[in-house]
Specification:
mainly alpha; 16 helices; globular; single chain
Length: about 375
């Protein structure tokens, strides 16, 4: 309402739905369809405010960001948030974190300290937030015009990197590696060989606990990995029965459907699918899944095209690159986890997506003005 009110002074101002692209508009529409068709409508209804908040976040960012200075401010605010989050993780490590046996296989990770979780109660959720914000801080570091902004971007990224290492979240580490690769590819592809060499050399300086944690990715005996296979199996059995419509919006609806059909036979409780693609499919059906994946890939593709073929200012270019890198890293991380299980993480996911779309829109406008 505030955005609409502020736009009343301009006759040409409108909420820009077109810049979201057809795929994301379709996905946002499927959110309400999934609620309406839910077999557990009351349970699904409480997720509508979460999704509506995220939809409005994306729509308002895309519709109200008109200048590169606004994007630069947003990148700076992302960096400041990351500095606070990363600092909290470092302080938590200094104070000490109790080892939670439900988060780690103690037999394969001997000597690993407790996993930091910051303000998010869960180390994986904390790592996912860091994964989304680190590329934005690096983007700000490379586009800030003053030394204060550059220092903020550098120390925010450094604090975020230190904290994400101390979460011991393997999926987020892999996602961050892909985010770094996408970032370098869009920023300066000539640096890719240098990046590979630096990454390989960096492995030699990793703490033993971090290196051993990475190695457990390939160990089939790891209990925290094995515990997810019954979840995947239950989701697969459900999708065989309801591939088109799904169970309805929200993890509660999916959990109730799995329980009513007696499809889960693991040792722990079925909370969610531990995979965003399976979860979205189970909630919104096959159309919702295709729209979601198509929407993110379309957003990244349009952003990449804007910075590769177009002519735009440095803050806009770096906002596109940071947003595209964060989205691709999050999508890879999502293959082993469900990022939206915590609404706070879901909002940050869509906030970064909104910055990517807004920056892409502004990049297109600057390119048209340059060629006019």
């Amino acid at each position: 309402f505030l955005a609409v009110f502020a736009g009343m002074r301009r006759q040409d101002w409108r909420l820009d739905v077109k810049s979201l692209g057809p795929w994301l508009v379709a996905f946002f529409g499927m959110i309400f369809v999934a609620w309406a068709l839910s077999a557990y409508r009351a349970q699904s209804g409480r997720y509508i405010p979460y999704y509506l908040t995220c939809i409005l976040c994306v729509l308002i960012l895309v519709s109200t960001i008109e200048r590169r200075e606004q994007l630069e401010r947003l990148l700076g605010q992302c960096s400041l948030a990351l500095l606070v989050l990363g600092g909290a993780g470092i302080v938590q490590r200094i104070l000490g974190v109790e080892v939670n046996m439900s988060y780690v296989d103690a037999t394969l990770n001997v000597g690993m300290p407790g996993r930091v979780y910051g303000f998010y109660d869960n180390p994986n959720a904390f790592a996912e937030v860091l994964l989304l914000l680190i590329p934005m801080a690096v983007a700000y570091l490379l586009c800030a015009r003053g030394w204060l902004g550059r220092f903020l971007g550098f120390f925010a990224a450094a604090a975020g990197m230190a904290s994400i290492a101390m979460t011991y979240s393997r999926a987020s580490w892999i996602g961050l590696a892909l985010a770094a690769a996408v970032f370098v590819l869009l920023w300066n592809r000539k640096l890719i060989p240098v990046g590979i060499v630096v990454a390989l050399l960096g492995l030699a300086f990793l703490p033993d606990t971090v290196f051993h944690r990475i190695m457990t990715i390939f160990n089939p005996a790891d209990t925290t990995t094995n515990s997810r296979f019954p979840l995947y199996q239950a989701a697969g059995e459900f999708l065989k029965l309801h591939p088109v419509t799904g169970a309805g919006l929200g993890t509660d609806a999916v959990r109730s459907a799995i329980k009513d059909l007696n499809l889960f036979h693991g040792k722990d409780l079925f909370v969610h699918c531990h995979n965003i693609y399976l979860q979205v499919w189970c909630e919104t059906g096959i159309i919702g899944l295709l729209a979601f994946v198509g929407g993110i890939l379309w957003s990244v593709k349009e952003g990449a095209r804007a910075v590769i073929k177009g002519v735009c200012s440095q803050p806009v270019r770096m906002a596109v690159i940071g947003g595209a890198a964060a989205m691709m890293g999050a999508m890879l991380c999502s293959m082993a986890d469900y990022l939206w299980n915590y609404p706070r993480v879901m909002l940050i996911f869509w906030f970064v997506a909104g910055i990517l779309l807004a920056a892409t829109r502004l990049a297109g406008r600057e390119s048209r003005e340059e060629t006019a």
